[in-house]
């Protein structure tokens, strides 16, 4: 397959944007250090599941806006709903009627929750959940899953990562950790911090599948210890099921946080919870006031219009079930390619079919950023934007998937050369990608 080699305008774009914007992007996951040298540095436009870069190279997109686009780029029904709402205005001094419309729709999707609070990004609502939990329990400590990479850019979480520069020591001491699929680590954490943990937050699943009834056992431990159970559904929400991973796994969190897919790329996030906790963020007379979320742009009407259209489209078109089937097709055929080339020790597909990821190992069977970068380079230069995860959208069709599998095979063949050579030298152009969470750039 023909490979892209012209990134001249992309590279100039990168130089300019990094001089004007710290990190060259507004989330570190979009930075140059997260992609091979031979890859797009900037995007001009997107339509459906295709995007075009600064040099007009066209890519089949499996990243889908950091998982935020669940239908397709510039999806017509969503765009039309937004355009219609724009004619009515986007921000007012009092709540817009569409805020109530959206809240009622969420109540239909999540009947066990009583109240909802809107925002523009995930970190805002996860931090709001932590704040509510501290007020509700009169405790200070937060428990986070150490095997999951991100919950918020705020101090309570970032202070627990390698990127803790600038975070007060006193703040870091208030975050404790447990291991996924290890209920004994959860019990030990509660024992060591008895009566101190306000809340526990985790994703129901990242890629490792829950074992031995772990999620239910964890939920029970939270109840037993009087700790608020927060489920982060930024990625799993509106993907595993319409009601999120909690519907799929049969969970009943006290609070849940959502974002990304619900807006199909528009900035929409929300906190959902039970009234006895959520009402603390209200203005009920006589109660101590929790300054929960107070943002001018938190309920901009066009974002809510997008979210309403997304939810209705997911329901009406049975999209989530269809995406599960696409994922099964991808994983089955990709695994066959890996097996046929004798790469099963080096390339492994993990996770559920709705959101499969790929682990890349070197010739010593160590997980390798260098070998991963080589694979990304080969996919991207062949016109498939791939970062190690298949973010399946409604507009991905089976022609797109078969094209992807063809490119996947060609990339595996190059990968096999590197394994046999015990080196990526002569194959990988430029440096390997780096972890987002690191102490030194």
Describe what this molecule looks like in 3D.
Keywords: Pyridoxal phosphate. Its cofactor is pyridoxal 5'-phosphate. This is Glutamate-1-semialdehyde 2,1-aminomutase. Strands 4-10-9-8-7-5-6 form a 7-stranded mixed β-sheet, with helices on both faces. Strands 1-2-3-13 form a 4-stranded mixed β-sheet. The model has no long low-confidence stretch (mean pLDDT 97). Helices cover 39% and strands 13% of the residues. The chain is an alpha/beta fold and 441 residues long.
Name the structural class. alpha/beta
The SSE order reads HEEEHHHEHEHHEHEHEHEEHHHEEHEH
User: How many E strands?
Assistant: 13
Strand arrangement across the biggest beta sheet: 4-10-9-8-7-5-6
* Percent range for β-strand residues: 5-15%
Calculate Rg over CA atoms: 22 Å
User: What low-confidence regions span 5 or more consecutive residues with pLDDT below 50?
Assistant: none
Total helix count? 15
Distance between the termini: 35 Å
Judging from the principal axes of the Cα atoms, what is the shape?
globular
- Average the pLDDT over all residues and give the rounded result: 97
Relative helix content? 25-40%
* Biggest beta sheet summary: 7 strands, mixed
């Amino acid at each position: 397959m023909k490979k892209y080699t012209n990134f001249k305008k992309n590279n100039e774009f990168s130089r300019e944007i990094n001089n004007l914007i710290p990190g060259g992007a507004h989330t570190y996951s979009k930075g140059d250090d997260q992609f091979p040298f031979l890859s797009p540095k900037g995007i001009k436009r997107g339509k459906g599941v295709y995007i075009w870069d600064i040099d007009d190279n066209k890519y089949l997109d499996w990243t889908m806006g950091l998982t935020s686009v669940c239908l397709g780029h510039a999806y017509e029904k969503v765009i039309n709903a937004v355009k219609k709402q724009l004619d009515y205005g986007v921000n007012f001094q009092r709540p817009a009627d569409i805020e109530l419309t959206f809240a009622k729709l969420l109540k239909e999707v999540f009947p066990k929750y009583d109240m909802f609070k809107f925002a523009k990004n995930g970190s805002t609502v996860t931090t709001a959940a932590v704040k509510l939990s501290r007020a509700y329990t009169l405790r200070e400590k937060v428990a986070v899953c150490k095997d999951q990479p991100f919950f918020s850019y705020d101090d309570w979480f970032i202070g627990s990562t390698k990127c803790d520069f600038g975070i007060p020591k006193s703040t870091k001491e208030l975050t404790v950790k447990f291991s996924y699929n290890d209920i004994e680590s959860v019990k030990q954490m509660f024992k060591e911090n008895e009566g101190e943990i306000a809340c526990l937050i985790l994703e129901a699943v990242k890629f490792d599948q829950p074992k031995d009834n772990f999620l239910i056992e964890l939920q029970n431990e939270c109840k037993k210890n009087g700790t608020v159970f927060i489920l982060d559904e930024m990625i799993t929400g509106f993907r595993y099921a319409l009601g999120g991973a909690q519907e799929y796994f049969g969970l009943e969190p006290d609070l849940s946080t959502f974002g990304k897919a619900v807006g199909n790329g528009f900035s929409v996030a929300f906190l959902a919870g039970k009234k006895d906790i959520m009402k603390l963020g209200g203005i009920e007379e006589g109660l101590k006031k929790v300054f929960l979320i107070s943002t001018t742009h938190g309920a901009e009407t066009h974002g809510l219009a997008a979210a309403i259209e997304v939810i209705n489209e997911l329901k009406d078109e049975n999209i989530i079930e269809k995406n599960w089937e696409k994922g099964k097709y991808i994983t089955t055929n990709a695994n066959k390619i890996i097996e046929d080339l004798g790469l099963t020790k080096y390339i492994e597909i993990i996770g559920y079919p709705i959101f499969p990821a790929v682990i890349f190992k070197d010739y010593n069977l160590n997980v390798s950023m260098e070998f991963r970068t080589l694979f990304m380079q080969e996919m991207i230069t062949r016109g498939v934007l791939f970062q190690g995860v298949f973010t399946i959208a409604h507009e991905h069709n089976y022609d797109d998937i078969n094209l992807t599998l063809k490119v996947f095979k060609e990339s595996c063949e190059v990968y096999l050369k590197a394994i046999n050579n015990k080196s990526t030298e002569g194959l990988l152009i430029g440096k390997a990608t780096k972890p987002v969470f690191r102490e030194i750039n």
